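Technical annex B. To support the medicinal chemistry partners, we prepared a structural model of the target in complex with zinc ion, based solely on the information shown next.
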Amino acid sequence: MKTRLMKTLARLGLGLPVVLALLGGWLACAPRDASVAELLDLSAALPQLAAPAPAATSAATALPQDTLPKTVADVLADNTICTTDAVRALSEEIIAEANCLRPGTYVKLSESERTVFAEAVFPYLLEPARDALVLALATRKGKLTLSSMLRTVAQQYLLHEWYKAGRCGIKLAAEPGRSNHQSGLAIDVANPEKWRVPLTARGFRWLGKKDRWHFDFVGRARAEKNAAKRLAPELAGLDVKAFQRLHNLNAPTADLAETGDFDEATADALRRAPALGFAAGPSCSAVGPPGARGEPNP
Ligand SMILES: [Zn+2]
């Protein structure tokens, strides 16, 4: 039996992958809590730069060019859009710029026969979380379906606005700047019952029945906790700071303070930002071609 949400999406012409993304990803958006961020091993997150590879497919680019929203505000104004893929290009720039600011922070989980990425998933995490996920995959047979991983501030902004407006079936979404998904620490798993044991054994914490798809990477060793306490605050706003820098690179007046705080000026700039990406960016030249860096393949 179809749910009302699925029927609504069907009327909008959105298929099963989007439904999976909604059910598996957007209902699971727990706000960051300090105890989670405390446990991150950042000592392993800083090898030299890996540029995030552009995704092979995009629902946004599949749309007719003349119907594409021009700004993030246009995306919000379009009641037919319920996918963060609409800001995929902008989000890819934000990730690349974040890797300029902190080389190697976000790394890619390569898709394999063991992993299934729902539509609109950005397959990036912090390196220790990505590596722990690869190890968890090695301990159990079967497929792991990921419905959400890293989100940029642009994606989280859309989810939160849709949540506030009661749109797109979103039951819970953290404010921009307050989701562990923005830090690359969180994953949403569409089949959590199957993967709960191997994931928790590798340092992922299940959030519980209130958000049963959601796992936060918390690490295991005391050293990981200590490293996170020192560096988590800086990392928490990295994607926001990356957006602020991209905005300033492209604006006639570089008027955003590059603080990493999602303040009102940043929110306003984000609403005016091009959904398909800025003309100029990212700022560093070290961004290599997709796949330039060796990536574990589970
Ligand atoms: Zn989540």
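Notes passed to the chemistry partners:
The chain has twelve helices and seven strands.
The two ends are 35 Å apart (CA to CA).
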